[in-house]
């Protein structure tokens, strides 16, 4: 009976929409038919004013907590009582008196997320440096894109990972993930609903086969930690030699070059027609890093070009506004941010000092925007590896 009570109560608490009732009381309108056509806080602010928006925000953020508190009161222990907070989210989305057409439940989910974050921070489960890295990610993506959906899609998976890692897969972290994944789903839904997509220029310029294949290079790092230095040198050297020979053959014969560039146009960039490909530069850089630097530093130096360059291209081409030499400020900022994020996660598993990671990130980013002719896939790894080695010695 207590489960029946909490299901019904949770749904009714979640179904109450302050903005809808305030719209009816104050102006005699259905707020969903005005402004941004939603019953959310921002639309309430625009249509009804500040005070109704404050009431709406406060109740929408706390309704999940109210249901969790009620569940605890009737005997459902913590943290499982917060599972019933999701009933409030569903009530918010499907209110019976609005023909089951409510909001998206994002504010209610955020309220629960903030509560768990406060609990994690109080217990020392969620360290300050992780919160700083996450905050940098949010601020940078906000500055570059000015788009809430992109911010959510970029940061929610990181937040979910942090909770699962630091809380060690506890019931709290799993329940926390339920609400973060709800927010992620809302963001993807809004992207589809609003018809958001990349610019045609970005779609045409990025070689998507290489873009999505780049993260698989992290297998080199995993293999190195699972095997030996001899094995990784043999593997990376063989792959580097393959790409090097392919480029030498391609560049030595015009007919072969034209045939390869035409048949593999989805792999090679137009600017690589008369020079070595960035795939060759990257694999040579990986081989040299594995040969020259200690394992932890070598793998970190390879990590930066994998993720930094990947997101620098995407954000730079799509949102780049300010030019820095041949790059954009936005692309460089994305390079630093996602390299730092990848480096921080790497530091959690390997134990390499985060200060060394920061130094390597900055060095790799500077190498990426430097005006010299050396490919940044090569220079970024070698320069960051050298800088991190110096910091490691000191």
Describe the structure using short key phrases.
394 residues, mainly alpha, 3 domains, two-stranded antiparallel ribbon, elongated
How would you characterize this protein structure?
The structure is a single chain. Strand 1 and strand 2 form a beta hairpin. This protein has 19 helices and two strands. The chain has a two-stranded antiparallel sheet with strand order 1-2. It has helices at residues 2-15, 18-27, 41-47, 50-73, 85-93, 106-123, 128-145, 148-166, 171-194, 200-205, 208-213, 218-226, 229-252, 254-263, 278-292, 295-319, 329-350, 354-369, 376-393, and strands at 323-324, 327-328. 75% of the residues lie in helices and 1% in strands. The chain is an all-alpha fold. The protein folds into three domains: 1-103, no CATH class; 106-197, no CATH class; 202-393, no CATH class. The chain starts with a helix and ends with a helix.
Assign an overall shape: elongated
Structural class: mainly alpha
Euclidean distance between termini CA atoms: 66 Å
Largest sheet entry = 2 strands, antiparallel
Secondary-structure element pattern, one letter each: HHHHHHHHHHHHHHHHEEHHH
Q: How many structural domains can be distinguished in the coordinates?
A: 3
Instruction: Say how many strands there are.
Output: 2
Count of alpha and pi helical runs: 19
Please compute the radius of gyration using only Cα atoms: 25 Å
Mean pLDDT: 91
Approximately how much beta-strand content do the residues carry? under 5%
**Uncertain stretches of 5 or more adjacent residues:** none
**DSSP helix fraction:** over 70%
The largest beta-sheet arranges its strands as 1-2
């Amino acid at each position: 009976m207590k489960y029946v009570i909490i299901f019904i109560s949770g749904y009714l608490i979640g179904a109450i929409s302050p903005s809808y009732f305030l719209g009816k009381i104050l102006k005699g309108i259905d707020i969903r038919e005005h402004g941004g056509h939603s019953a959310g806080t921002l639309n309430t602010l625009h249509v009804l004013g500040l005070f109704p928006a404050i009431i709406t925000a406060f109740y929408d953020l706390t309704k999940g907590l109210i249901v969790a508190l009620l569940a605890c009161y009737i005997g459902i222990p913590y943290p499982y009582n917060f599972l019933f907070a999701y009933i409030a989210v569903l009530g918010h989305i499907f209110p019976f008196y609005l023909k089951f057409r409510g909001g998206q439940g994002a504010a209610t989910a955020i309220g629960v997320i903030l509560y768990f974050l406060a609990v994690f921070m109080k217990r020392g489960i969620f360290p300050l440096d992780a919160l700083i890295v996450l905050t940098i990610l949010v601020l940078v993506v906000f500055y570059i894109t000015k788009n809430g959906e992109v911010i959510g899609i970029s940061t929610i998976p990181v937040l979910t990972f942090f909770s699962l890692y630091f809380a060690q897969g506890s019931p709290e972290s799993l329940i926390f993930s339920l609400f973060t994944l709800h927010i992620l789903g809302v963001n993807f839904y809004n992207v589809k609903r609003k018809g958001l997509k990349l610019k045609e220029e970005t779609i045409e310029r990025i070689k998507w086969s290489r873009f999505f294949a780049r993260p698989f290079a992290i297998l080199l790092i995993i293999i190195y930690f699972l095997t030996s230095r001899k094995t990784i040198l043999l593997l990376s050297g063989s792959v580097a030699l393959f790409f090097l020979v392919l480029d030498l053959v391609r560049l030595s014969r015009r007919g072969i070059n034209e045939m390869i560039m035409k048949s593999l146009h989805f792999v090679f960039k137009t600017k690589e027609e008369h020079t070595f490909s960035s795939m060759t530069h990257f694999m040579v850089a990986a081989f040299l890093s594995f040969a020259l630097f200690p394992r932890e530093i070598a793998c970190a130096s390879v990590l930066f070009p994998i993720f930094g360059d990947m997101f620098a291209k995407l954000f730079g081409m799509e949102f780049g506004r300010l030019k820095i030499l041949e790059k954009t400020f936005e692309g460089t900022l994305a390079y630093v941010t996602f390299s730092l994020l990848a480096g921080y996660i790497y530091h959690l598993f390997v134990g390499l000092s985060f200060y060394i990671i920061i130094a390597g990130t900055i060095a790799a980013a500077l190498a990426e925007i430097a005006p010299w002719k050396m490919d940044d896939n090569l220079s970024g790894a070698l320069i960051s590896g050298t800088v991190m080695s110096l910091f490691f010695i000191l």
